[in-house]
Amino acid sequence: MKWAGSAVAVCLAMSSFVVSPNARAHPHGWIDLSVRVITDDQGVVSGLHQTWRMDPFYSLVVFEELQQVENASLEEGLDQLGREIRDNLAAEHYLTEVKINGERQALGEVSEYTAMERDGRLVFMFILPLETPQPLTDALLSYQVFDPTYYIEVVHEEEDGQPQDDALILHGEPACELSILPADPDPEMVMQAALLDKDESGEPGLGRYFAETGQVDCR
C-alpha cells in the first residue's frame, strides 16, 4: 500500500484516493488541531504533543480505502499510514514553526506517533520535539501549524466559533498565560486565495497568512 500525490496531500497521505478537487471549494480540506506544550518541573520546554483530526470527508474515504486492502486489517493499515504520514511530514518540517522570543527553533525527529480512528475521524497524534529544549522562564513561545500552499486549512479545536479550552494546554511548569490568536490576513492575501481555481493550491507561503498562532506567555 503506497500513497502518492501533491505536496501537502502527500504529507497527509491522502491525495491518491480523494475525489477530484474540482468537486470542492478551496481549501480542499481541514484539520482540527490541539496542542499540549510539554515542559518539565524546571519549566524547560521539550516539544509539542499535537493531535490532528482530519475532516470527516477525508476520514471516510481513507477508511474505505484501508478496508479494501487485501490481507490487511484496519489496524495494520493505520499503522502503515501513520508511518507514511510521519515520513512525509518530516520533509515539510511537520508543517510546524515554533519560536521562542521571536527566534525560530530547530525541530527534532518525530519518533512517537500513532494514527487511529476516533468517532469516525482519522486522528494522527505525535510528539514533535525541539532539537534543543529551552527554558520558558521569562519567555514567549509561539507556534503556527499550517500548510504552506493552503491546500489544507489547519484550525484549533473550537466550539461556537471560539477555541476550546483544551485546544492548547501546558503540561508541567511554569504557570503561563495561554492564548490562540486568530489569523488576520491582509486583503491582498485574501484576494490571492479567493482567485485560486478550485483545482489549484496557492504559492508556497500563502498558508502562513491564514494560520492561527498559539502562544505560551511566561514573561
Explain what you see.
This protein has 219 residues and is of the alpha+beta class. It has a single domain (7-217), classed as Acetylcholine Binding Protein, Chain: A (Distorted Sandwich). The chain is 19% helix and 36% strand. It has four helices and 13 strands. It has helices at residues 7-11, 56-67, 74-90, 187-194; strands at residues 29-39, 44-54, 96-100, 103-104, 113-118, 121-135, 140-145, 152-156, 158-159, 162-163, 168-171, 177-181, 213-217. A hairpin with a 2-residue loop joins strand 5 and strand 6. It is globular, with a radius of gyration of 18 Å.
Q: Short description, anyone?
A:
The chain has 219 residues and is an alpha+beta fold. It contains four helices and 13 strands. The protein has a single domain, classed as Acetylcholine Binding Protein, Chain: A (Distorted Sandwich), CATH 2.70.170.
